[in-house]
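Need tokens for this chain, all 323 residues.
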Amino acid sequence: MQSIEPVQQLIKEELAAFEDKFKAAVKSRVSLLDRIMYYIIKRKGKQIRPMFVFLSARLFGPTDESTYRAAALVELLHTATLVHDDVVDESFERRGFFSVNALWKNKVAVLVGDYLLSKGLLLSLKNKDYEILQILSTAVEKMSEGELLQIEKSRSLNLKEDIYFEIIQNKTASLLASACSAGAWSTTRDENKTEKMRRFGEKAGLAFQIKDDLFDYGSESVGKPTGNDIKEKKLTLPLIFTLNNINGVKKNELMYIIKNKNKDRNSVQYVIDEVIKAGGIDYAQEKMILLRDEAITILYEFPENEIRNGLESLVRFTTDRKY
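Here are the structure tokens for all 323 residues:
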């Protein structure tokens, strides 16, 4: 499996400085907020998105303060959406720890998400980073649309693959696309290069989300229980493929379980087994690899150097990761 550590080494100084800048960006005069921010920062994930910002910036030149602000804005928006997502999904766990709403209840969690969002917007406005603010605000709009589209389609158990891709393009890929384009803009101020990096990030983000969906059918511990998407009636790519490629009787049986018995562990396991049997996992993996390779092809339009190689490794890590 690809390791993320050599990539982190390439931008070690940026990541170390970013840690301090991010802490400063979320500072508040309210002690409750500061306690929650401390809790969030201590449990931050791998910081994949800020890494994409720094590498996309470094691909074209040395980072500057606007690059750090772009990375902080991406991380603030990402964290805000995670806090809000946990409220929407009624989830009490995030990466193996209690979520903010589990510890401080929904009202506080919603306000914390709003606070993070406003901090990000003010950080950009104060420094006149209008183009970067435009890039990231578009991502927030798309993420909201993606979530609502998913809720709408899960009610009718949508079986269309193109709708699935529209949902994940908005929900997940838009933020990664914005991270790459904001990073590129911070060191180039070049619309053409920025757009290329946006497309690169979008392809990588789609592959990233399919990998996330595949975890639902695997045995690896990823901070969410296996079969969670089925329990929430989220139709992911392996399931959509399966339902569209099995006989009518079996399809009706699985649809009945997803609608009515989605909280029963044995029934959920039965659906998972049927998806594996029908080739849904293999199909989703093929799609994921195709998107990953499309992202790398865009990257190859730029000259080879250690940063480009680092970006390629990071994309490969997102599809090879075990958690």
